[in-house]
Every structure is written in C-alpha cells, then in structure tokens.
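In the design runs reported in the main text, the only information available to the sequence generator was the tokenized backbone. The following block is the verbatim input for one such run; it is reproduced so that readers can re-run the procedure and compare outputs position by position.
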C-alpha cells in the first residue's frame, strides 16, 4: 500500500506541475542598445548646435565613454530593462564627479532620452560614429 501511496503522491505532484503555466516572456522592446556601438556618436540638447564643437550642451558617446562638456564618464555597469537601459557612470570632472545612474532610451526620431533622478534630457543625434574605445555599453543590455 505504501508504494501505491508514494506513486499516487508523485503523480499528483506531476499533474500539479503540469497545471502551472510559466509566465509569458515579455516581448523584447527596442532598447537604446541594439548593438554595442548603437549609441556611438555626437549629440546635442539643441539640434541647431550640432555643428558647434564648443557647445556646452553636447554629449559624445564613444564605446564605454560618455563625454559631457565638463565631465568624462566611464560606464561601470549597464542593465537592460523593458523599455530603457539603466547605466551606472563613473564620472570625473565637475560638477558631476562620482557615480551617476541614468536611464537611456533611444527614440525612433533619432533622439536619446537620458533620465537622472527626476530630470529627463532629450539629446538630438548629430552624427553616428564607430567606437574607438572598449565598448561596455550594450554588452549586458
């Protein structure tokens, strides 16, 4: 009788496991990093300043480097999320020295949205470029 009870218990567990359906995997949403070099290039908060190398509203992304007018940051970590990529930047320069956590969203209109805390900036892509440095952005995204 004991082997029969053990078999019945095992069969019940097997049926219960079959009744549980794995949660649906969310459809991948196009994130900002389709490939490791997807964001490489020059950006500006003002599209009209794209040709101005002295603009104080520029951003250059080169592999794992984010170069702002007063700070240079290196990607320390990146994590792909459903509709954005969370990037930890280790920055040198003022006023942004230290670690910064930003959320990046690449938009179909050629803009890059960067959110830090409650502030969102929209950068216009001025020019695409291939990376000249090691690319960490996108490897874990």
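Verbatim output:
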């Amino acid at each position: 009788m004991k082997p029969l009870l053990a078999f019945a218990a095992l069969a019940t567990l097997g049926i219960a496991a079959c009744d549980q359906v794995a949660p649906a995997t969310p459809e991948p949403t196009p994130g900002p990093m389709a490939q490791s070099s997807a964001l490489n290039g020059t950006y500006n908060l003002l599209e009209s300043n794209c040709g101005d190398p002295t603009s104080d509203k520029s951003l250059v992304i080169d592999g794992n480097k984010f170069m702002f007018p007063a700070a240079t940051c290196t990607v320390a970590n990146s994590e792909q999320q459903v509709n954005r990529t969370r990037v930890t930047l280790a920055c040198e320069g003022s006023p942004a020295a230290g670690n910064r956590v930003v959320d990046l969203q690449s938009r179909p209109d050629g803009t890059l949205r960067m959110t830090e805390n409650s502030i969102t900036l929209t950068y216009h892509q001025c020019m695409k470029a291939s990376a000249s440095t090691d690319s960490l952005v996108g490897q874990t995204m």
